[in-house]
Design a protein that fits this description.
The protein is built from seven helices and 13 strands. The chain starts with 5 loop residues before the first strand and ends with a strand. The strands form four sheets. It has a five-stranded mixed sheet. It has two domains: about 55 residues, Urease, subunit C, domain 1; about 110 residues, Diaminopimelate Epimerase, Chain A, domain 1. The longest helix has 17 residues. By secondary structure, the protein is an alpha/beta fold.
Length: about 210
């Protein structure tokens, strides 16, 4: 056999039913050999990329069978509110983002219900934090959106819409008023999302979003 393009050595290969192995040789897009470090090192040449597993598990990449990859990839450019456990922390992140990002809309994702007294934020709070442009902030579970008065006005909705809280179908109806990314912007977002997935061992996905 000719030299491997990739060799991973010094690990524990997850290969049910196969003899115990510590190394893998890859030829292009195919696994060419499993065996001991000595077996695989015999396939290493000057052009082979070698990864030292240092005792780690060597296993195939994962497939995620239910993921909203486009939505998540677009959200990489949004204000990140995940992990903000108090209203004070949510406010701080919004103020910092408001000062540094001047897109036509402020878009965010990840706020927790428990961060707010009573389990829900108010439109008055968001109007104070983002007074001069529309703001649309999705909760961590993406089932609720928190919007300010300018966002409601941009969508032609009266101020009394559940005090700036949109749920389920109301969110779906509102989405058509959000800035629409171009195809090139979506492709750039997807590439960024794919890099994150690959770094976590996810090599393929099934998109679960609508249309």
């Amino acid at each position: 056999m000719h030299q491997a393009s990739l060799a991973i050595v010094g690990g524990v290969v997850w290969a049910p039913g196969a003899p115990r192995a510590t190394a893998v040789a890859v030829d292009g897009e195919r696994i060419a050999a499993l065996g001991s470090d000595a077996d695989v090192r015999g396939l290493i040449g000057a052009a082979t990329r070698v990864i030292e597993a240092r005792g780690g598990t060597i296993l195939p990449a994962f497939n995620d069978a239910h993921i909203h990859s486009l939505m998540g990839s677009r959200g990489l450019a949004y204000l990140d509110l995940f992990g903000a456990e108090t209203q004070q922390e949510v406010e701080r992140r919004i103020r910092d983002f408001e000062a540094s990002n001047r897109a036509p809309w402020l878009l965010a994702r990840g706020w927790l219900y428990a961060a707010f007294p009573g389990g829900m934020p108010t439109i008055e709070l968001l109007d104070r934090l983002v007074p001069d442009r529309p703001a649309y902030l999705e909760s961590f579970d993406t089932h609720t959106a928190w919007v300010n008065s300018r966002a409601l006005a941009a969508a032609g909705i009266g101020h009394g819409a559940e005090a700036g809280i949109l749920k389920e179908k109301d969110m779906d109806d509102f989405e058509k008023h959000l800035p629409a990314p171009s195809t090139d912007e979506d492709l750039e977002s997807l590439r960024a999302g794919m890099k994150i997935a690959a770094a976590s061992g996810v090599a393929s996905v099934q998109e679960a979003s609508r249309g």
